[in-house]
Amino acid sequence: MSLPVHATLAGTQSGPATDPALDAWRQLSAKQQPSWQGSPEHARAVAELGTLPPLVFAGEVDVLKSRLAAAARGEAFLLQGGDCAETFEAATADRIQSRVKTILQMAVVLTYGAQMPVIKMGRMAGQFAKPRSSDSETRGDVTLPAFRGDIVNGYEFTPESRVHNPARMVQAYHTSASTLNLIRAFTQGGFADLRLVHSWNQGFMSNPAYHEYEQLAGEIDRAVHFMEACGADFEALKRAEFYASHEALLLDYERALTRTDSRTGTPYDTSGHFLWIGERTRELDGAHVDFLSKVRNPIGVKLGPTTTGQDALDLINKLDPDREPGRLTFITRMGASKIREALPPIVQAVRDSGAQVVWVTDPMHGNTVTSQNGYKTRRFEDVMDEVRGFFDVHRAMGTVPGGLHVEMTGDDVAECLGGADPIREEQFDELYESVCDPRLNHAQSLEMAFLVAEHLAHR
Ligand code: PEP
Ligand code: MN
């Protein structure tokens, strides 16, 4: 990350063992928590996390907040992407590299379309905890605890693997640390070079299935050559800021990594730069909203189709009482068939209140269906229809479409249906890898970037 020098030195001393404000959530109802409270292993894991170094620095988090403030004003665009659920096993150099590469490729296309900076953020280096609609899973005549993400239990369908094991929190920390280390190395060490990323995009365009995007790809190519001819400083374009984000679901983990910033004496959750609250845990009086109201990071909240304008205003008052620029992001996930009715009243209430948030579309979580052969999937056309609805609503209301939140991977998996070079459900048996929700594969992700770029160019 390129940061002001003082920021790298700031912040992140360990916090006090207990703090009345930071621990108020413990008295509130916390949904989706593991059943390991009270065990000696749990106490040991939490104590260990409390002694480990922070994963991010408060100064970096502040820089991100200022970038998000620009997105709220329509002067930047957020691209947030990665796995539904990261796994320990898949935290390999190749997998991390292909995801970072795909996000960088998407970002170049979006930057050209938007003609403004794109904030690059992974659902990476900490996206290990999953909310579930059921506590258990039944296969045949066997019922076991549901998989809740590698930070809680294992995906393998055996009693041993599905036990909630608090030592996994420590492993999640170390896996996040090594993932973030590699991301920092790539994005600071030359892998984010604009000319390199552009050459990858040209490789993608060599597939005739994408001829629809040739004009835009050609324009980007000419723009890069124009910059070259003008003697642009490509050295300066070798590095990229890249931020880490995850759903702040497991409050023990988030609390243990919350530290006092030595510059300001205020608490930052140092498990990631940006944390979001999921659709299932966003009750106003619940533990998640309370805890995240106490830390200084930029915060996201997922909003599903049952959200009212008043819900949105209540969340703003609780999470952003000072109306701090860049503090709050609303990530709407309505479903393609609902967004055009469900989003306007929420946007209107927020707009009329004078509050400013970053409006981000998550076109994945409202569009999950089951394929005929029994896989959880999403159709590319539904996903794109929700994106179109998002842009249409904001254009009609005079508000700012500030970002895109997607479940994607850099690998050639088959999990979502369709796209110009279509994925078919017969490919699922061989190429479906996700342990949770279906992700766009490498090519579908890039195709989406081209389509969103067109919307950004014409908004
Ligand atoms: C997710 O982002 O993986 C998720 C569970 O989303 P939501 O809270 O919007 O359902
Ligand atoms: Mn998901």
TrEMBL record:
EC number(s) stated in the UniProt entry for this protein: 2.5.1.54
Swiss-Prot/TrEMBL cofactor(s): Mn(2+); Co(2+); Cd(2+)
Sites where the protein binds Mn(2+): C84, H365, E407, D437
InterPro entries noted in UniProt: Aldolase_TIM, DAHP_synth_2
Broad enzyme group: transferase
Associated pathway: Metabolic intermediate biosynthesis; chorismate biosynthesis; chorismate from D-erythrose 4-phosphate and phosphoenolpyruvate: step 1/7
Cofactor notes: Binds 1 divalent cation per subunit. The enzyme is active with manganese, cobalt or cadmium ions.
Keywords, alphabetical: Amino-acid biosynthesis, Aromatic amino acid biosynthesis, Cadmium, Cobalt, Manganese, Transferase
Catalytic reaction annotation: D-erythrose 4-phosphate + phosphoenolpyruvate + H2O = 7-phospho-2-dehydro-3-deoxy-D-arabino-heptonate + phosphate
Family stated for the protein in its record: Belongs to the class-II DAHP synthase family.
Protein's recorded name: Phospho-2-dehydro-3-deoxyheptonate aldolase
Protein source organism: Galactobacter caseinivorans
